[in-house]
């Protein structure tokens, strides 16, 4: 039984879960998947295609004939983490293929690790497969190597990420994701729905909808019939009988049309919205919409139309030029907004980001001090909101059962990044994927405890 730490990075996907089945003589590929859930989906697609060609998936370096490292390039610290992972794979295995966001900078990787076999960019699946073929030729046995109906998944069987688009049309000064992953490219509605249907048929109980900009889904289609295709997609996903959780939703005006679906119970009353800051001048320096006051009005309207809605967001403190007064505005805004789930980054320069050239960079010690003050405020809000749930009966989904407790999540909690609900008495008959009703009898800063109702 483990509790989520308050400083858990909100951009990180759950750790990949890789099985360990391999026939004699079958070539095996290891996978290290870093970064966000969108990268985890890319890893799943790569492994699914390799699995279809007869490769086994190795859970460790020693059992692999080669290793793929799917990298992250979101922050300089993430780049350093990726380089460390590549070095570790080279030391432990020797045959390493690099892909993912950092792969958009091949010279950066080969400069640090010249012995890697190949470097490919994000979602370049064919190039990854070509590199694997060159390092470890396939040896399929069509009578033995069977591919699961849902492909290879790196998450528990009862939930799955559903990526609906690639790329982003925003030009935020602190972000280089559009440079690495390109402009918005939405998957066809039918393809997304077909994938979701297959996942639910295979036993998935929760679909986590992800993209770089979920609410912009479909707006890149020139011949579209509707202004906001995400609305019809959300409604269709809501008909499948699984929990549908929306991530990375920018607060465009049409998002308010999604709220009645939450009130109806079609999709979960949960919105993950990257507000980033609240002071209009900071937002302008970020090249983001500077409408924090109107955002408060929008939040009030969402809560009026769906009182049980849960709001998660991420923020950046210590952005270049951020004054103490601007930071205090953010704290005051958070007091008023009363967001349920909050993550926070200390600003970092990222090679290639336009924010690097801004004047008045904030000293690291000031960033740290503001981060602690921000998280203290967010923690107090979380603690009060969770305390109000004591005595309530709510539905939870079981994620894991061990000797100590069943670790569950409420509708208000996404995997890994939000809180847990623990059942530590009478939980022995529960199993992962079950949805049960519990009564909350204790609350902490980020987690709840309860018993079966």
From TrEMBL:
<dbReference type="InterPro" id="IPR002792">
    <property type="entry name" value="TRAM_dom"/>
</dbReference>
<dbReference type="InterPro" id="IPR013848">
    <property type="entry name" value="Methylthiotransferase_N"/>
</dbReference>
<feature type="binding site">
    <location>
        <position position="175"/>
    </location>
    <ligand>
        <name>[4Fe-4S] cluster 2</name>
    </ligand>
</feature>
<keyword id="KW-0808">Transferase</keyword>
<comment type="function">
    <text>Catalyzes the methylthiolation of an aspartic acid residue of ribosomal protein uS12.</text>
</comment>
<keyword id="KW-0687">Ribonucleoprotein</keyword>
<keyword id="KW-0963">Cytoplasm</keyword>
<dbReference type="GO" id="GO:0006400">
    <property type="term" value="P:tRNA modification"/>
</dbReference>
<dbReference type="GO" id="GO:0035599">
    <property type="term" value="F:aspartic acid methylthiotransferase activity"/>
</dbReference>
<dbReference type="InterPro" id="IPR006638">
    <property type="entry name" value="Elp3/MiaA/NifB-like_rSAM"/>
</dbReference>
<keyword id="KW-0004">4Fe-4S</keyword>
<keyword id="KW-0479">Metal-binding</keyword>
<dbReference type="Pfam" id="PF18693">
    <property type="entry name" value="TRAM_2"/>
</dbReference>
<feature type="binding site">
    <location>
        <position position="172"/>
    </location>
    <ligand>
        <name>[4Fe-4S] cluster 2</name>
    </ligand>
</feature>
<feature type="domain" description="MTTase N-terminal">
    <location>
        <begin position="27"/>
        <end position="137"/>
    </location>
</feature>
<keyword id="KW-0408">Iron</keyword>
<dbReference type="InterPro" id="IPR023404">
    <property type="entry name" value="rSAM_horseshoe"/>
</dbReference>
<dbReference type="GO" id="GO:0005829">
    <property type="term" value="C:cytosol"/>
</dbReference>
<keyword id="KW-0949">S-adenosyl-L-methionine</keyword>
<dbReference type="InterPro" id="IPR012340">
    <property type="entry name" value="NA-bd_OB-fold"/>
</dbReference>
<dbReference type="InterPro" id="IPR005839">
    <property type="entry name" value="Methylthiotransferase"/>
</dbReference>
<dbReference type="InterPro" id="IPR005840">
    <property type="entry name" value="Ribosomal_uS12_MeSTrfase_RimO"/>
</dbReference>
<dbReference type="GO" id="GO:0051539">
    <property type="term" value="F:4 iron, 4 sulfur cluster binding"/>
</dbReference>
<dbReference type="InterPro" id="IPR007197">
    <property type="entry name" value="rSAM"/>
</dbReference>
<comment type="similarity">
    <text>Belongs to the methylthiotransferase family. RimO subfamily.</text>
</comment>
<dbReference type="GO" id="GO:0103039">
    <property type="term" value="F:protein methylthiotransferase activity"/>
</dbReference>
<feature type="binding site">
    <location>
        <position position="72"/>
    </location>
    <ligand>
        <name>[4Fe-4S] cluster 1</name>
    </ligand>
</feature>
<feature type="binding site">
    <location>
        <position position="101"/>
    </location>
    <ligand>
        <name>[4Fe-4S] cluster 1</name>
    </ligand>
</feature>
<feature type="binding site">
    <location>
        <position position="168"/>
    </location>
    <ligand>
        <name>[4Fe-4S] cluster 2</name>
    </ligand>
</feature>
<feature type="region of interest" description="Disordered">
    <location>
        <begin position="1"/>
        <end position="26"/>
    </location>
</feature>
<dbReference type="Pfam" id="PF04055">
    <property type="entry name" value="Radical_SAM"/>
</dbReference>
<dbReference type="InterPro" id="IPR038135">
    <property type="entry name" value="Methylthiotransferase_N_sf"/>
</dbReference>
<dbReference type="GO" id="GO:0005840">
    <property type="term" value="C:ribosome"/>
</dbReference>
<keyword id="KW-0411">Iron-sulfur</keyword>
<protein>
    <recommendedName>
        <fullName>Ribosomal protein uS12 methylthiotransferase RimO</fullName>
        <ecNumber>2.8.4.4</ecNumber>
    </recommendedName>
</protein>
<feature type="binding site">
    <location>
        <position position="36"/>
    </location>
    <ligand>
        <name>[4Fe-4S] cluster 1</name>
    </ligand>
</feature>
<feature type="domain" description="TRAM">
    <location>
        <begin position="387"/>
        <end position="453"/>
    </location>
</feature>
<dbReference type="InterPro" id="IPR058240">
    <property type="entry name" value="rSAM_sf"/>
</dbReference>
<dbReference type="GO" id="GO:0046872">
    <property type="term" value="F:metal ion binding"/>
</dbReference>
<feature type="domain" description="Radical SAM core">
    <location>
        <begin position="154"/>
        <end position="384"/>
    </location>
</feature>
<dbReference type="Pfam" id="PF00919">
    <property type="entry name" value="UPF0004"/>
</dbReference>
<keyword id="KW-0689">Ribosomal protein</keyword>
